[in-house]
């Protein structure tokens, strides 16, 4: 069984798109665990409609760790709430995961809506470097496949890390356990461009560049120097519309 774990906070707009894309998959041996951080909109109602297991979450790292505690699958898929999975995503990803004998893997991302400029920027700033450096300086964001026993031995996500706890985890696992990690080539993940629209392409790019340098030369980001916020996108966009 595959355990799909989704951290959420007020995701009534995007969660149905993700859950519907999961429902349409040819692969069906899965459970969906929603780790909710206190949604006040229709998020939980939508999750119940799709038969999700609902648990109390928190920030993404906390939510994912709590999800693993109740997960029944031997492989876990961590997924952000604002993504959409393409056709046959699990069939292709799990097949490659097993064929390459990977123990942790992540994916290239495609923006929604798909525009030439945003696609080029994401390819140059994330997809190409992450694929090129998959065994030297691994990355893992938006969607992560990992063997549950390995995740447990690693102690899960470090909940003290404020930003890029996913990159920190994959690098720790590779170094500490000599695990086989990589980027899945047979399929990609579609992700909303809301974070770029809300915070700005330049601000997002600069933030993650500085975070990457912090990870490499100093270590995990455990102070709030980058002012990370969870679940603020919809409120920010509503305020923009009202103004």
Give the tags:
disordered C terminus, 44% helix, 243 residues, Spore Coat Polysaccharide Biosynthesis Protein SpsA, Chain A, 10 helices, eight-stranded mixed beta sheet, single chain, alpha/beta
Walk me through the structure:
The chain is α/β, with parallel strands linked by helices and 243 residues long. It has a single domain, classed as Spore Coat Polysaccharide Biosynthesis Protein SpsA, Chain A. Helices cover 44% and strands 21% of the residues. It is built from ten helices and eight strands. It has an eight-stranded mixed β-sheet with strand order 3-2-1-4-7-6-8-5, sandwiched between helices. It is globular. The relative contact order is 0.15.
Q: From the alpha-carbon coordinates, what is the Rg to the nearest angstrom?
A: 17 Å
Q: Can you identify the CATH superfamily?
A: Spore Coat Polysaccharide Biosynthesis Protein SpsA, Chain A
Which structural class best describes the helix and strand composition?
A: alpha/beta
What is the 3D form? globular
Distance between the termini: 47 Å
Indicate how many domains the architecture comprises.
1
| CATH structural architecture | Alpha-Beta Complex
CATH class: Alpha Beta
How many DSSP helices?
A: 10
């Amino acid at each position: 069984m595959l355990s799909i774990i989704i951290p959420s906070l007020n995701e009534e707009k995007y969660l149905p798109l993700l859950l519907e894309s999961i429902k349409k998959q040819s692969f069906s041996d899965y459970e969906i665990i929603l780790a909710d951080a206190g949604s006040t909109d229709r998020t939980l109602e939508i999750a119940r409609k799709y038969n999700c297991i609902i648990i109390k979450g928190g920030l993404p790292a906390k939510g994912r760790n709590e999800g693993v505690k109740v997960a029944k699958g031997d492989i876990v898929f961590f997924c952000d709430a604002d993504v959409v999975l393409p056709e046959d995503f699990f069939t292709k990803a799990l097949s490659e995961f097993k064929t390459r004998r990977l123990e942790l893997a992540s994916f290239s991302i495609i923006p929604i809506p798909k525009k030439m400029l945003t696609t080029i920027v994401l390819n140059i700033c994330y997809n190409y470097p992450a694929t090129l450096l998959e065994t030297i300086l691994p990355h893992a964001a938006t969607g992560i496949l990992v063997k549950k026993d390995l995740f447990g031995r690693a102690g899960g996500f470090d909940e003290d890390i404020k930003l890029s706890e996913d990159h920190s985890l994959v690098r720790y696992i590779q170094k500490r356990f000599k695990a086989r990690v990589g980027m899945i080539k047979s399929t990609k993940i579609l992700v909303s461009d809301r974070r770029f629209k809300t915070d700005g392409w330049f601000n997002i790019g600069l933030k993650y560049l500085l975070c990457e340098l912090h990870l490499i030369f100093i270590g995990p980001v455990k102070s709030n120097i980058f002012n990370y916020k969870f679940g603020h996108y919809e409120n920010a966009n509503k305020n923009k519309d009202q103004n």
